[in-house]
Amino acid sequence: MTHVFHRYPLNTLPTAAKGDGIEIVDGDGKRYIDASGGAAVSCLGHSHPAVIQAIKDQVDKIAFAHTSFFTNEPMEALADTLVAEAPGTLDQVYFVSGGSEAVEAALKMARQYFVEIGEPERRHVIARRQSYHGNTIGALSAGGNEWRRAQFAPLLVPSMHHIAPCYAYRDQTPDESEEAYGLRVADELEAMIQELGPRTVAAFIAEPVVGATLGAVPPVPGYLARIREICDRHGVLLIFDEVMCGMGRTGTLYACDVDGVAPDLLAIAKGLGAGYQPVGAVLVSAEIYRAICEGSGFFQHGHTYMGHPTACAAALAVQQTIRDDDLLTNVNTMGEHLSQALEERFGNHHHVGDIRGRGLFRAIELVADRTTKDPFDPARKLHARVKREAMARGLMCYPMGGTIDGARGDHVLLAPPFIVTKGDVDTIVDRLGDAVEAALSG
Ligand SMILES: Cc1ncc(COP(=O)(O)O)c(C=O)c1O
């Protein structure tokens, strides 16, 4: 009898007893390849010596010191490291303990910025349907995942609004080019700003490459540039949520680098600390920072564990390892290999409608019929079957349902560690292929 209120109380889970490179070993000695990094977290695998040593060294010096009394060395060094390669004018870092906290901080920072500069009427935030920004009330309000929102709807923040995602596989019309499709959906932002009243909108928030809810969906060319243009025209702040897709996962340190579009606020977590410690951050533009410093002089927010020295020391070691070992090159080469291997295994599969993603962030979308793109009956819970069958075969992947509208659709997300080899990738795709077949025939 457990006294832990587990995430899924009715399921019996194996115990994660040990980490060994890209594998997790359970209490019975069974090995699982972590092909999803949990939920796109464990980008260095599970036993990286440099990160483990950095944590030990930091705890030997000092484990924690509250940030209202002290700064600390790893936090300062980590901020320098992140800013050195940050896009646009992002040059300050606000540290928190995870992705939801990063999104909450970004939303509140956007609001406070407008209060500081004398535009307190800016109170609306626009986000996209089929997005996920976290589970705290503010982040959940911004998110556009109907299934996650439904029962909490009465608690959600009414100043959040949603436009269409950029989801070409389902929404691009046959007579439309990718670019034309991207401009059409981006222009929904313009329409929503007009509807709410241009000087009442504070921010637009989006995942540059959509993660858990849609399954590794990159924007079409030109989409993010148009979004930036619309935000600039109306003085609306642009927030990128790179909690899942950032920190090298999609092939560049910041996911938005690929599209050449810089936000005003950028949320990161997951791959920042690679799971060795809970840590997240918001990168903040020079202008927002200046407005707060020259205004009230204080961002009215804060958490007990922000800038936690041990968490920052771990994240610093993770980021240094990624640079020292040139792991982004491996993300790109292994990402291409993974894409090809998925094409070979599933490219002609009657029940795989789309294979997509960037870098080591890839997904397949499962369909009842490849020609019509009809989804499977949600009652079949195909995504859950795939997860079960994969675990039985020693593979962790990240399947999810509700891909289309929160209820219909299934996809399987892969986000293996940046240290994977060709052989690892082939094994991952083999096991996934077998798991999908078993789930479909069950
Ligand atoms: C894009 C995105 N934003 C925010 C979050 C929330 O992060 P956390 O679970 O660390 O609070 C997630 C988590 O999956 C995410 O994928």
Describe the protein in words.
The protein is α/β, with parallel strands linked by helices. The protein has helices at 37-40, 49-61, 73-84, 99-116, 137-142, 146-149, 168-171, 178-196, 223-234, 286-294, 309-324, 327-346, 382-392, 422-441; strands spanning 16-20, 23-26, 31-34, 90-96, 124-128, 160-163, 201-206, 237-241, 265-268, 280-285, 352-358, 361-366, 395-396, 398-401, 410-414. The radius of gyration is 21 Å and the shape is globular. The model has no long low-confidence stretch (mean pLDDT 98). Helix 2 runs antiparallel to helix 11 and helix 13 (382-392) crosses helix 14. Pyridoxal-5'-phosphate is lined by residues 39, 98-100, 103, 132-134, 207, 211-212, 241, 243-244, 269. Pyridoxal-5'-phosphate binds next to helix 4.
Instruction: Give Rg in angstroms.
Output: 21 Å
Structural class: alpha/beta
Helical content (DSSP H or I, runs of 4+): 25-40%
Cα distance spanning the termini: 30 Å
Shape: globular
Order of helices and strands: EEEHHHEHEHHEHHEHEEEHHHEEHEEEH
Low-confidence stretches: none
How much strand content do the residues show?
15-25%
Number of helices: 14
Mean pLDDT: 98
Counting DSSP E segments of at least 2 residues, the number of strands comes to 15
Q: Major beta sheet, specifics?
A: 7 strands, mixed
Which oligomeric form is depicted? Answer: single chain
Ligands bound to this protein structure = pyridoxal-5'-phosphate
Sequence of strands across the biggest β-sheet: 4-10-9-8-7-5-6
